[in-house]
Amino acid sequence: MKIISQVAELTGVSIRTLQYYDEIGLLKPSELTQSGYRLYNDEALQKLQQILFFKELDFKLKDIREILEKPDFDRIAAFKKQKELLLLKRNRTDRLIQLLGRLEKGEQCMSFKEFDLSDYIHALENFKSNQAETVAKRWGSVENFDMFIQKIKDNEENVAKLAIQQFGSIEKYTEAMKHNLEHFSEIMETKLTEEAQKVAQQSDKLYDKLTSDLSKDVGSQEIQAIVHSLILQIQENGGAVSLDKPYIHVLIDAYSSDYVKKLTDTKYGKGASDYIVKAFRYYSENNAFQNN
């Protein structure tokens, strides 16, 4: 058992903060002495560690408490998600440091403002707050949606490039996305047109073919031809979608997310999502079919 001052010294969390966590029910002491002093055991310290990871990812205290209080809360699964998000955050920081290095050398680099998706991210946060039930239904859980938002934040430059390619500007992209969020339920309930159904069927056939044998070398001509067909289909039916690396990386990030991975593996078999990621990554890194 450790008294509150020892916990504060060990973790760097102030005594007043620990007292506040107790007051709001986020982290209760394991015991109280007869004199009213708070005592914390190893289990409480582990919970505090979990809280600090969530705080590092900018989760609100209210949201952290709700997550930790869920009956099906899985501590190990949470660590895995936190690790994934922290790696994304580190990658974003690394990219910003690289950009600053180029600016220090006098290079002319595109400004941050041109890749600013803060308005769109704010709209997503509002959507989460006002449509929690819809978010949980469509994304599996609020936590999955938080991960979706975090991925956009940590891959902001590439997402912004794609947005500009498709819509002409960040402003037009944000306006379109806000409209989609405001009419999300209507859009999700709207039946696909005959043309859209045809495209979806073609896409399903290609993914079925791509994942029919996960033992095949992703770098083989057969597999890369399927990947090429998939990307061409996206280009043909997605407006001004580019086949450059940033867009392919968006696809790779999508299939790497827990939510999409679960859906993909359910539909095409266990391991399908990882296989698709490898196939797309090989296509990107080796410039497959670049001249075709």
Residue windows where pLDDT falls under 50 for at least 5 positions: 239-245, 288-292
How large a portion of the residues is in β-strands, by DSSP E?
under 5%
Strand order of the largest sheet: 1-3-2
Shape: elongated
Radius of gyration: 23 Å
| Major beta-sheet overview | 3 strands, antiparallel
Element-level helix/strand string: EHHEEHHHHHHHHHHHHHH
Structure explained in plain terms:
With 292 residues, this protein is mostly helical. It contains 16 helices and three strands. The chain has helices at residues 4-11, 15-23, 42-56, 61-69, 75-104, 118-130, 132-139, 142-154, 156-167, 170-182, 184-189, 194-210, 221-237, 245-256, 258-268, 272-285; strands at residues 2-3, 31-32, 38-40. It has a three-stranded antiparallel β-sheet with strand order 1-3-2. Helix 3 (42-56) runs parallel beside helix 5. The longest helix is centred in the N-terminal third of the chain and has 30 residues, at 75-104. The termini are far apart.
What characteristics describe this protein?
2% strand, 292 residues, mainly alpha, elongated, three-stranded antiparallel β-sheet, 16 helices
